[in-house]
Design brief:
GO terms for molecular function: enoyl-[acyl-carrier-protein] reductase (NADPH) activity. It is found in: Mitochondrion. Pfam families: ADH_N, ADH_zinc_N. The chain is an alpha/beta fold. It folds into 2 domains: 194 residues, Medium-chain alcohol dehydrogenases, catalytic domain (Quinone Oxidoreductase, Chain A, domain 1); 147 residues, 3-Layer(aba) Sandwich (Rossmann fold), CATH 3.40.50. The strands form 4 sheets. Strands 5, 7, 8, 9, 10, 17 and 18 form a 7-stranded mixed sheet that branches. Strands 13-12-11-14-15-16 form a 6-stranded parallel sheet, with helices on both faces. Helix 5 crosses helix 6.
Length: 374
């Protein structure tokens, strides 16, 4: 059996198909035939990796055969799905939670209900749905999963936002609400402000009357980037080199010292966040784009009593609060529907998956969030 055939069989869990025709059961020594009707999904096209490794080396798009639907199953025609950094890490095999290989990539997305199992009552053909909590295998044209996996959403949401609301925006919302009690007039500081989470934090903070100090890397288009962030609601934006001064507090002006900081970079950039924090302030680390450790001075602990914490959405999804997931997502989608919430993405046809993957990996230069359109 070829490698592709093995992957197909493992992914679909089917030993054979008969092009959607009725299968037969054969009993020895005499032969009897029993027929039953079955609803089959359409054939699907999927981005599959059969082993862990460099994503551009181990991932390929293959054809998958139809799958039989059970009575509680829903077949969803995917509309859009992003390529997140965590998706890349799962393929590389370095993410703490990952599906067993061979696996279909993707962890969030949005689709349209294509067909229903006989016992499904809460959804209708044509509804828009997202997997909530997010679920493995969204990089494919058709997905069959139980009704309980799918969360119905309004169809007035741009598909790229519906496809991406569950990971980055939800992370931003939870970090603002769950770590430190913030009130209107408080201040937060963050690095990685141009990331999707960073853009979301700026806007969610502004909606709550919370002011933000934002740190970006030095780049050729610094002023244009600063202006974009200000339009989103950023109060102050600094490059890392601007903060290489003895006392960054002089840059605050009339802003109070921040109670809360967010770090997704690590290394020196994390130290810059710590410089701003007030006595007893907290820094939350949710990423490490520089792949450098977070280092903290002894004086920061002894004399400022700073608190360092981490945040991982996957852990939150397995906690008691996960029951609030769909309510929070609906809140975020409501902001998007009203035009109060936006972030930058690049839409790429699924047929150009290889290009989108290379852009997500950074091998074709720096690009925004890659969203596959089916």
């Amino acid at each position: 059996m070829s490698t592709g055939s093995k992957a197909l069989k493992a992914l679909r869990g089917q030993s054979w198909f008969c092009n959607g025709l009725l299968p037969v059961f054969i009993r020895s020594p005499t032969v009897s035939i029993r027929a039953f009707s079955a609803t089959m999904s359409p054939p699907s096209k999927a981005a599959v990796y059969e082993q862990h490794g460099p994503p551009d080396k181990v991932t390929r798009v293959i054809e998958l055969s139809p799958v039989e639907m059970k009575e509680n199953d829903v077949c969803v025609k995917m509309l859009a799905a992003p390529i997140n950094p965590s998706d890349i890490n799962r393929i590389e095999g370095v993410y703490p939670v990952r599906p067993q290989v061979p696996a279909i990539g993707g962890y969030e997305g949005v689709g349209e209900v294509h067909s229903l199992g006989s016992a499904v009552r809460g959804l209708s053909i044509g509804d828009w749905v997202i997997p909530s909590p997010p679920s493995f295998g969204t990089w494919q044209t058709y997905i069959v999963k139980e009704e309980s996996v799918w969360h119905k959403i309004n169809k007035d949401i741009p598909i790229e936002y519906a496809a991406t609301v569950t990971v980055n925006p939800l992370t931003a919302l939870l970090m603002l609400e769950d770590v430190v009690k913030l009130n209107s007039g408080d201040v937060i500081v963050q690095n990685g402000a141009t990331s999707i989470v960073g853009q979301c934090i700026i806007q969610l903070a502004r909606i709550r009357g919370i002011q933000s100090i934002n740190i970006i890397r030095d780049r050729a288009d610094t002023e244009a980037v600063k202006e974009k962030l200000r339009k989103l609601g950023a109060d102050k934006v600094y490059t890392e080199s601007q903060l290489e001064v003895k006392n960054v507090k002089d840059l605050l002006g009339d802003l109070p010292e921040p109670a809360l900081g967010f770090n997704c970079v690590g290394g020196n950039s994390a130290s810059l966040v710590l410089k701003f924090l007030r006595q007893g302030g907290t820094m939350v680390t949710y990423g490490g784009m520089s792949k450098k450790p977070v280092t903290v001075s002894t004086s920061s602990f002894i004399f400022k009593d700073l608190v360092l914490r981490g945040f991982w959405l996957q852990k939150w999804m397995s906690s008691e609060r996960a029951k609030d997931c769909r309510v929070l997502i609906d809140y975020l989608l409501g902001l998007i529907s009203k035009g109060k919430f936006k972030y930058e993405m690049e839409l790429v046809p699924f047929d150009n998956f290889d290009v989108a993957l290379c852009k997500a990996l950074g091998t074709l230069g720096r690009h925004g969030k890659q969203v596959l359109i089916f």
